[in-house]
Amino acid sequence: MGFVFSKQMGESLKAQQEFMLMNSRLQLERQLLMQNQMRERQAAMQIAWTREFLKYFGTFFGLAAVGLTAGAIKKKNPGVLLPIVPLSFIFAYQYDMGYGTMLQRIKGEAENILETQSTLLELPKGPLTYEDLEKMRRAQSKFYIEK
Q: Can you tell me where the transmembrane regions are (predicted)?
């Protein structure tokens, strides 16, 4: 009688462990999907913001270019056009970020760093461990009592 009962308990425990493993795996997959969705949405918001900014800055740049060109012609001084140079670099950067290939180049460089220069990513004093956190918590805690 005890053998049958323990056999049933063992099978039940094994089934429960398999269920828990499957459940935790499913939960991890959902978390990974959610994190990826959040990352994609944040990236989409950043690109959309850049494109919106480009509309306003493009208008400003166009008006400034026309105004500075008119001023340079009126005063017969080409030095008046000098502010167009840095403004054109800003405009080109924003355009490349919003509509160009900048994000692909950044992604490629990030992948290169991860593959060939991973030592640049190491934290000072190595990764943070539970023991390090406990040591810091104990040092800061006013209520810690040594056992």
A: 53-73, 79-95
Judge contact between 61 and 87, C-beta under 8 A: yes
Comparing C-alpha atoms, which of 63, 109, 56 is closest to residue 83? 63
pLDDT in tens, 52-78: 999 999 999 999 999 999 999 999 999
Angstrom distance (rounded) from CA 76 to CA 74:
6
